[in-house]
Amino acid sequence: MSLPDSAFDVAIAGGGIVGLASAWQLLQRRPDWRVLVLEKEDRVAAHQSSRNSGVIHSGVYYRPGSLRALNCRRGYGLLLDFCQQHGLPYEICGKIIVAATPEERPALDVLLERGTANGLTGLRLLGPEETREIEPHVRAVAALHVPQAGITDYGRVAQKLAALIVQAGGVIRTDTRVRRLHATPEGVRIEADTWEGMAQRVVTCAGLYSDHLALRSGASLDVRILPFRGEYYELKPEREHLVRHLIYPVPNPNFPFLGVHFTRMITGGIEAGPNAVLAFRREGYHRWDLHLGELAEALAFKGFQRLARRYWRDGWAEMQRSFSKKHFVRALQRLVPELQPDDVVPARSGVRAMACTPEGQLHDDFLFVETPRILHVCNAPSPAATASLAIGETVAERVLKMTLAKQGK
Length: 409
Ligand SMILES: Cc1cc2nc3c(=O)[nH]c(=O)nc-3n(C[C@H](O)[C@H](O)[C@H](O)COP(=O)(O)OP(=O)(O)OC[C@H]3O[C@@H](n4cnc5c(N)ncnc54)[C@H](O)[C@@H]3O)c2cc1C
Fold this sequence. Notes:
Layout: E1 8-13, H1 17-29, E2 35-38, E3 55-56, H2 67-86, E4 90-91, E5 95-99, H3 105-117, E6 124-126, H4 128-134, E7 142-146, E8 150-152, H5 154-167, E9 171-173, E10 178-184, E11 187-192, E12 195-204, H6 210-216, E13 224-235, E14 246-249, E15 261-264, E16 270-273, E17 277-278, H7 292-300, H8 302-323, H9 325-333, E18 344-356, E19 367-371, E20 374-379, H10 388-407
Parallel strand pairs: 1-2, 1-12, 2-9, 5-14, 12-20
Antiparallel strand pairs: 3-8, 4-8, 5-7, 6-7, 10-11, 11-12, 13-16, 13-17, 13-18, 14-15, 15-16, 19-20
Helix pairs in contact: 1-5, 1-10, 2-10, 8-9
The structure holds flavin-adenine dinucleotide.
Flavin-adenine dinucleotide (FAD) is lined by residues 13-19, 38-41, 45-49, 51-55, 57, 177-178, 205-209, 213, 230, 274, 350-352, 380-386.
């Protein structure tokens, strides 16, 4: 591109689905603006945005009124429109959330209430027989049917956003790791390892490194990102008939993850997972991937120590599922008892960026931190892929307000 490096109205650090959706939403509002996306990898969406379950979440789980609930519901509609408009594959296949024991049954009422408060319609409590009509191989005391849940390929959504950004005159610079940002009266000086430049405003959407970039750029932030790897197995083709759509357990109220589940993929095949184990490096996709500095940083963080004390039992069970296929399959057998260890083969993994507070709680919502001229997206966990276009709207509106404030309008 021929634009001079100093001439950008907005630069976005991080080319995952949230950064790209933000750039695209900005360009929708201000086609005259020069927008730059800086991505440290050699391609966009190399991390969470293409290493996820591909589920279009309906909003049944999230606290009514929270940013997750509001952006999930709004993002859901925007995402479906976007996929339709650009010929991207998606399917609204519905899901069931399964109570495997009578003790789990009341949790379905809570989810039904939450989902209804979040504006979902068509939610239905099912008995064991009705559950089997939808998923013949599931054993359930009861289940909640969520017809709005769906599947897509977020990697492809991100690629499409990138293409549209470039088509609209935006610039995407890969292989460019942003080191730090300095806000000055003239704009924000961006220091990257292979580049230096200025922009009037900067948004950071750095996923697993969102805290590092915000802190290095002078933001005051008490949360830290903890990386939780999620590992998947895949059903062998001859056993795919065991699962028709999406089958989830009732979430463990003591543990902030959804539990291993079955997901039909839009590209074909059925995945089972992901579990949730602390990764020993932020982009640690394999069990033995280790970065001493990053691991030491996590272990030394008071918030992690408190989290580990609170959840050690669940964390240990997740570790067992990581190291033993038998344990992993045992969790899946609570949903589909016929499943056997031989029916699944190890598949890919992803690492979730989860902001943890010093008190040892995983921050339960999206988190934005604003400093002069810079907006940091500090926590964008699931359902941020579903919600990405709505988060992008929020980011765009906030950046426009920043600009208006500066011009005194
Ligand atoms: C296992 C798993 C399953 C999930 N399942 C679902 C699901 O089914 N449905 C759903 O809605 N959500 C799901 N999610 C969540 C969803 O994938 C994420 O919330 C979403 O992708 C976050 O997007 P992002 O752009 O913030 O982060 P990322 O996709 O991680 O993007 C951040 C980008 O910033 C870049 N970056 C980092 N530091 C720098 C720097 N200093 N300079 C330049 N670039 C930098 C990174 O290379 C990366 O490309 C899942 C996540 C995981 C891990």
